[in-house]
Amino acid sequence: MGKSVSAQFQTLRDHKDCALIPFITAGDPDLATTAEALRALDRAGADLIELGVPYSDPLADGPVIQAAATRALERGVTLDAVLSLVAEVSPDLSAPIVLFTYYNPILNRGIEQFLQDIYQAGARGLVVPDLPLEEMDVLLKPAKEIGIEVTLLVAPTTPKERIVAIAQQCQGFIYLVSVTGVTGMRQQIGNRVHNLLQELRTVTDKPVGVGFGVSSPEQAAQLKTWGADGVIVGSAFVKRLAANGSGDGVSEVESFCQQLRTALK
């Protein structure tokens, strides 16, 4: 049943490769297009794929991803619909799927039930941006038993001792947020990221994926040079899918993914 997130990172490390991790929002412009886009990203060399579950109050998301989530919700996209989609597509993918969701939908379903459901559907990782470290235990323990790896976020403002605690708890990979604030395309990736990557290296050997604001092959290549184990690209993919409806959007996403893949080689 699918490769784990950490196994995928280990394979990449063995080949001295940097992981390409695209993010798209499930159900925007519609679920059928999401399914096509997942397959296209996998074909184009994505190593893991982050799939956003639409949520009504997405605090960590920038305007592009917020708008995509709102459109998906207006079309009636539910967590169950997203899980059916994952169950349908994941057997065809070599890239493990990491679900990005807020804590409320997990709580509503019941933590263990949620984790079992997403594992059965074929997801292998989970990012929950609004669950603080202090409350992570309720999720991390059952996740470990079920086989879902929970990724935690480190921000440019996170103090050193907290970085150490997050690195210890984290499963799969550490999600380094490259800018303070919400996701979105940024022209400049802060030099603080370079320092943070080096700082993380001193406290953990777990893989580090950098995201929030990466929008070009040049930025992706820069992050690899700085020592990132993975590069997460979200808004730039979501925007391409949204702007072009179904057919064109999927081919745009595929060619953009290929460009990023080439830049990371």
From TrEMBL:
Entry GO terms, CC: cytosol
Active site: E50 (proton acceptor), D61 (proton acceptor)
Keyword Lyase: yes
Family: Belongs to the TrpA family.
Superkingdom: Bacteria
EC number(s) reported in the record: 4.2.1.20
Record-linked Pfam families: Trp_syntA
Molecular functions per Gene Ontology: tryptophan synthase activity
PANTHER family assigned to the protein according to its UniProt record, in alphabetical order: TRYPTOPHAN SYNTHASE ALPHA CHAIN, CHLOROPLASTIC (PTHR43406:SF1), TRYPTOPHAN SYNTHASE, ALPHA CHAIN (PTHR43406)
Pathway info: Amino-acid biosynthesis; L-tryptophan biosynthesis; L-tryptophan from chorismate: step 5/5
Its job: The alpha subunit is responsible for the aldol cleavage of indoleglycerol phosphate to indole and glyceraldehyde 3-phosphate.
Assembly and interaction partners: Tetramer of two alpha and two beta chains.
Organism, scientific name: Adonisia turfae CCMR0081
UniProt name for this protein: Tryptophan synthase alpha chain
Chemical reaction(s) catalysed: (1S,2R)-1-C-(indol-3-yl)glycerol 3-phosphate + L-serine = D-glyceraldehyde 3-phosphate + L-tryptophan + H2O
Gene: trpA
UniProt key word Cell membrane: no
Keywords noted in UniProt: Amino-acid biosynthesis, Aromatic amino acid biosynthesis, Lyase, Tryptophan biosynthesis
